[in-house]
Structures are given as C-alpha cells and as structure tokens.
C-alpha cells in the first residue's frame, strides 16, 4: 500500500471517528432528558395516592417535566444571554450559575401557594367536572410545552407564561365555550406585548445614556468611574433587594411597601460602602480607556444575572408545574379546582431539576441568540439590560401593569442597541470631515466620486441591531398565545374523544 493510500484511509477513519463522536454528543442530550422524564413518572407513581384517575397524574408528571425542560431551555437565556454576550461569563460558567440559582429559587422560594392561571383566566364561578378540569390542565400544559419547544428550536425567546395562558384559554374554550374565558384579562396580557419590551428598552437606554454622560464620555474616565460606579452598584443592590423581596421570596417573606423601600435603601447603602474600596483598588492600575472601565461592571453584572436567575426560578417554576399541582390537587380531592392549590415539594423538585437540565442540555443556543445575535454587548450594556429588567418588573408591579420578564430582557437589548445606532448615525451625520478625507481604504483611493458617495451611503446605512431578529422575535411573541390556544384546543378535543 502506498503512503498516499494509507493517508487517505487514515483520514477516512478519523472522519468516521469525528462523525461518531458528534452523533453521540447530539444524542446525549435527548437521552438524558428522556431519563429525567422517566424518573419524573416513577416519582409520581409513588407520590400520588391510588385512585381512579391516578394514572392521569403520572402522565401529567411527564408533561410537567417536559415543560420544565423547555422553560430552562428558553426562558433562562434572558437572564444569562447578556452576561455571556458581553464575555463577562463563559458559557460553562453561565450554565453552572444559572442552574444553581434557578434551582435554589424554585426550591427555596417557589410558590408555597400557586394561584393557578386558570383562576385568573376563567370566569369566576365556572364549574368544570373533575375529569374535564384535569384534561384542560393537561392539554394546556402539553400545548405550551410543545410551542416553547418549537420556539427554542427556531431560536426565538418567547414568554412561557404567555404560552401557558394560551394553552388554558384554548383548552377552556374547547371544554366549555367562549363564555368561560375572562377576556379582559386576555386583553391585559396582550397589552404586555407592547408594554414589556418598551419599558425594558426605555429604562436600559436611559441607564446607558446616564453612564455615557457621567463615566465613559468623560475625558478622565477613571476618576469619573471612582465616583459613579459605586453609585450604580448601590442602585443595583437596592433595586435587587426590593425585587427579590417582592417577586422572589414570596414563600419565605411578603413585606409591605414601606418595609420593601426601607430594605432597598439599606442594601443600597451597603452596596455603596462595599463598592467604594473595591472600585478604587481596581482603578489604581487601570488605563483611561472605555474597555478598561467596562471591566468594572463585570462582577456586578454576574451578581445581577445570578439574582435574576434566582427570582426567575422562584416565579416561573409555576409555569412548568403550576398546572400539574392543580391536577394533583383535583385528583386527590375529587373536585375540579380553579383556585389556589398547594405546591408539594416533590412537584417543585420536578420543576427545579427540569429547568436546570433544560438549561444545561438545550439552553446554549438561545443564550447565544439573546446575548450575541441581536446586537453587540459589552459589560456596561449588559449591566444596563440586567438592571433594567429588575427595575421594570418593580415599576410595572407598582403600577399594576402586566409584563413579561422575557419581553423586558429582550426589549432592554433592543433599547441599548437602537440607542447606540442613533449615536452612531448622529455622530456620522454631524462629522465635519471632508468627504475625500473619510475614505482611507486603499481600495477606494482611485474611486470615482459616484463610487465614493455610494460607499459613504453604505456606511451610513450600517445598523447595529439585526432587523431580522427584531421581526422574527416580535412575530413569535404575537403568535405565542393564539398558537398555544389552538394547539391546546385540538389536544383537549382529541384526548376527550379518546377517553370518552
């Protein structure tokens, strides 16, 4: 055998090994997810007491686990995407931090009592038989999980809350008609499609403009950072203290408004005291460049992302297992319920483990989409997005506005991107530089005036936000509720016909 033939054979073997390795890696994630769903099924078999409908609780446990995987794969990207996109965290570090804090939030502060979405979306006094109620919840949960799975596959961050809402509405209409739905609540949810991203974008843009005015736009950036970065850290610690007290620690503590504000002021003071020496020590050897100033926001950004994950786990675990908890309560009590139900620890555990696994197995794709493919982020811009998310939720809660954390986070990214685009366009348009002096590209030295003008116009059309992502994400937001509703209605009618 010649040497060239041997080399070709070795290349074929090497290529086969690589292909085998890639195939094994692609199959590992679904395999691990399947093992988790089987474990959830076995857990439910032992946890649910025997009864004529206990088999439905076992099936619902598998559906809830599937939904938890999808919540982790899609929703968590909103918290970790900016930190990864800004290079403040590696993908591995983000997955570890998010998994730990999401699970901690779900297990430690997950709703002690879950006001199921059915209570708010179905007209009070609506009576559903026990079997009908269970099938409505199962159809809603499966439909929302399937939709979020599809959205994750195509790379669109969507609201899992809206998916569950659509599922309950669709299954409820299929079971009892259009009169069963509380349509004013649906109108409020639809309004959040506009309110959430606009508020998130405006607050993030205002914060970025403030940082540019006070720190990065100054001649002596280091001195300005010593003054203002501790103030911004204090703002962050105060806002997150209030955010966690009102949204992330409901199971442990529910303070009144005065206590919440006092808590925010106290933690703001502690944050300022801790940040002052830390910023000064790091700035002693720091160059007077924006890139070096941005590094001061790295640690605060990581802390903010971790706290957002904790609060998300505490709140959104109900999207995965809230309907399942209602199903378990209905089966064990023998009565269809659209009110408040207890959240057993084993049910919370399925949600917490599922979210963590979904994030680790399927989350990186959405994290990259949110953090890298909408607009370019650095530590400062990502910090603005994270702080805007917490502040927007607090403001909306105080005003009684329905908002989506997913829409807020993505809206914040759009906000900082469009603001930078505006600055870039304004600076280019107002630059007092002769046209011939702007083209230093060697390829354009001998260009005609028409070619030079065309090149200039092309540069002016340079955009810092990818428009196709804006349109595709907005479309996914709008379609989520009706798509989940239609799918849930079809599932309910099919399952009801099968069982009946």
Automatic annotation (TrEMBL):
InterPro entries: Phos_transporter (IPR001204)
Domain of life: Bacteria
Ribosomal protein as UniProt keyword: no
Pfam families hit by this protein: PHO4 (PF01384)
GO molecular function, one term: phosphate transmembrane transporter activity
One GO cellular component term noted in the UniProt record for this chain: membrane
Protein keywords: Membrane, Phosphate transport, Transmembrane, Transmembrane helix, Transport
Segments crossing the lipid bilayer: 27-49, 55-77, 89-111, 131-151, 163-183, 189-211, 223-245, 257-275, 296-314, 343-362, 382-401, 407-423, 470-495
A GO biological-process term: phosphate ion transmembrane transport
Keyword Ribonucleoprotein set for record: no
Subcellular location, record wording: Membrane
Stored PANTHER family: PHOSPHATE TRANSPORTER
Protein name, per record: Phosphate transporter
Organism of origin: Devosia limi DSM 17137
């Amino acid at each position: 055998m010649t040497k060239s033939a041997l080399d070709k054979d070795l290349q074929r073997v090497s290529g086969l090994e690589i292909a085998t390795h890639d195939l094994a890696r692609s199959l590992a994630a679904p395999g691990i997810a399947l093992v988790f769903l089987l474990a959830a099924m076995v857990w439910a078999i032992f946890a649910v007491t025997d009864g004529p409908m206990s088999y439905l609780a076992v099936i619902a446990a598998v559906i809830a686990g599937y939904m938890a995987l999808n919540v982790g794969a899609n929703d968590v990207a909103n918290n970790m995407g900016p930190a990864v996109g800004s290079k403040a965290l590696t993908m591995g570090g983000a997955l570890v931090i998010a998994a730990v804090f999401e699970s901690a939030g779900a297990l430690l502060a997950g709703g002690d009592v879950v006001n199921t979405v059915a209570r708010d979306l179905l007209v009070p006094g609506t009576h559903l038989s026990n079997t009908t109620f269970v099938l409505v919840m199962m159809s809603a949960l499966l439909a929302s999980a399937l939709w979020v799975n599809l959205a994750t596959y195509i790379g669109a961050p969507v609201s899992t809350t809206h998916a569950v809402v659509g599922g309950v509405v669709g299954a409820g209409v299929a079971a009892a008609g259009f009169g069963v739905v509380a349509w004013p609540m649906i109108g409020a949810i639809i309004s959040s499609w506009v309110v959430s991203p606009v508020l998130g974008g405006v607050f993030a843009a205002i914060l970025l403009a403030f940082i540019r005015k006070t720190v990065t736009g100054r001649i002596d950036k280091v001195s300005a950072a010593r003054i203002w970065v501790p103030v911004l850290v204090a703002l962050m610690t105060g806002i997150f203290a209030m955010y966690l007290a009102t949204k992330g620690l409901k199971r442990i503590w529910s303070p009144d408004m005065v206590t919440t504000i006092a808590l925010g002021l106290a933690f703001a003071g502690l944050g300022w005291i801790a940040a002052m020496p830390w910023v000064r020590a790091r700035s002693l050897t720091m160059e007077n460049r924006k890139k070096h100033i941005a590094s001061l926001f790295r640690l605060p950004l990581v802390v903010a992302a971790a706290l957002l994950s904790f609060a998300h786990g505490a709140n959104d675990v109900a999207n995965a297992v809230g309907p399942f908890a209602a199903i378990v309560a209905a089966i064990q009590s023998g009565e269809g319920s659209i009110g408040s139900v207890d959240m057993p620890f084993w049910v919370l555990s399925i949600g917490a483990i599922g979210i963590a696994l979904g994030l680790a197995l399927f989350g990186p794709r959405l994290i990259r989409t949110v953090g890298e493919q909408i607009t370019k982020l650095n530590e400062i811009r990502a910090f603005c997005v994270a702080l805007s998310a917490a502040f927007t939720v607090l403001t909306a809660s105080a005003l009684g506005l329905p908002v989506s954390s997913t829409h807020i986070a993505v809206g914040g990214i759009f906000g900082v991107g469009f603001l930078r685009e505006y600055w870039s366009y304004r600076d280019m348009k107002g630059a007092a530089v002769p046209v011939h002096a702007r083209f230093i590209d060697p390829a354009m030295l001998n260009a005609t005036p028409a070619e030079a003008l065309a090149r200039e116009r092309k540069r002016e059309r340079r955009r810092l936000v990818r428009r196709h992502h804006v349109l595709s994400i907005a479309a996914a937001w709008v379609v989520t509720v009706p798509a989940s509703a239609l799918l849930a209605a079809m599932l309910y009618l099919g399952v009801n016909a099968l069982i009946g």
